[in-house]
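ABC transporter ATP-binding protein
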Amino acid sequence: MTAPRLIAQHLSAGYPDRRVISDLDFAVTPGRVTAIIGANASGKSTLLSTLARLTPPLAGRVALDDADISGIPRRQLARTLGILPQQPIAPDGLTVADLVSRGRYPHRGLLGRWTAEDERAVDDALASTGMSALADRAIGELSGGQRQRAWIAMALAQDPRILLLDEPTTFLDLGHQLDVLDLLVRLNRDRGTTVVVVLHDLNLAARYADDLVVMAAGAVVAHGAPSEVLTADVVARAFDLDVVVIDDPLTRTPLVIPVPGGSHTAADEE
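Predicted C-alpha cells:
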C-alpha cells in the first residue's frame, strides 16, 4: 500500500502574536526517514507540531494527500498519523503494558472491545522495542532510554503510516540515542512507515536520515539527501557556524566538524 503524502501548503504557524513560520510549502517524502534540523528557534518543533495537528495553522493548510487534516475525524487521523512529542508525560503508576495498550485506541470499535488483534499488536510492539520483560514495570521506574522505548512502543502499537517524533533522543546518552534511531530505521524498513524526526545532532541526522530538511528563521533552506544538502555553506546559513564537512569513514555520510572559534554568534557577543 502506497504511503500517504503529508503536505504543508502556504503554511504559516506559530502564535497569534508571533509567526514562527510564514508561507511555507513542504512535502514529506513517503516511505522514507526524514530528519528536520536547525538551530534553536528555527521553527523545527513548530513545523512538526503543525503537521501533527497539535497546533492549528495561522494560515494555509496541512493535507494528507488531498484532504485537509483539520477536517479528518480524530480516530481516523490517528490510524494514519502518529506523534511522539518532546518529553511526553504518563499518569502516575501507569505500566509499560498499559501505556502501549493506549496506542490501540484508533483501531478499537465503537464498544471499545479488546481483540486478539489488539493483543498481538501490543505484544509485537513490546518485542520490537525490547520492552517485553518490562511490560509490568511502572513508567516512572524506568531509565530515560527505557521510557523513550516504551513511548515508541505505544506508537508502534498504534501502527500509523506516518510517525512524527520531536527530539526523541534528547537527554539520552549516546548509546541510547543510537538504539532509538536504529529502532526508527527498522520501523521504516520493516513496516514501510514514513518517519519524520526532529534532531539536534547533525551527524546522527546525516547518518540515519534518507532526507534532511534544514530550517532557519522559519523557512526551509535546504531539503534533500544528506550528501547533497549538508554542506559547509548550508550549515553556515542555518547555524551561523563555520564547519568542515568530510565523509564519515564508517558510513560515508557527511560528517560535520566545527572550526574552532567558528561560531559567528559567539564572536558577535564578544
